[in-house]
Amino acid sequence: MKILFLCLGNICRSPAGENIFRDATRKAGIAAQFVIDSAGTEAWHTGKGPDSRMTQTLVSRGVEVTGKARQIKPADLEEFDLILAMDDENYANVKKLDPNGTFAEKIQKFTSYCQHHSETEVPDPYYGGQDGFELVADLLEDGCSRLIEKYST
Ligand code: 4NP
Questions:
Q1: Is the pTM here over 0.90, yes or no?
Q2: What is the pLDDT of residues 9-18, one digit of tens each?
Q3: Which are the contacts of 124, defined by CB distance < 8 A and separation ≥ 6?
Q4: Marked catalytic residue, from 37, 51, 124, 142
Q5: Closest-lying ligand 1 atom to the alpha carbon of residue 42
Q6: Residue 56 sits in a domain of what CATH number?
Q7: Domain count, the chain
Q8: In this predicted model, what pLDDT tens digit does every residue of 13-68 receive, in sequence order?
């Protein structure tokens, strides 16, 4: 199964999702079942590694952080089985790449997988403090455990 995590800049939320998901599948011994990647709706940070505050938050939770930012492209909609948007804006923007609704089923909000949080978006932490990065990591850990439960075999 191929899963693409999607946010705005691809340096905070979606690389965190990608790395938290990969870490959880490795620890469960099921990493080979998944192809995991992340992208941003914007190209502002293309080629850059994840934001140091996001990296530090994950490293303190024992999660290795890798990746280089890239912008989502139309071919990603064909390639991936699930495209998980972090917030309503990311969701609306990826929907614009699918004007005929061909890929409607696979484009979803990440928070629909959260079982222990009622947030309907993973909030953009970029201009805020450490508590925002911790909330991002909490939401991602929550939803990723449900994703694994639902899609691993
Ligand atoms: P992300 O966070 O979408 O979670 O990667 C952001 C990263 C950069 C900016 C905004 C949000 N920015 O304005 O550059």
A1: yes
A2: 999 999 999 9
A3: 7, 8, 12, 13, 86, 87
A4: 124
A5: 3
A6: 3.40.50.2300
A7: 1
A8: 999 999 999 999 999 999 999 999 999 999 999 999 999 999 999 999 999 999 99
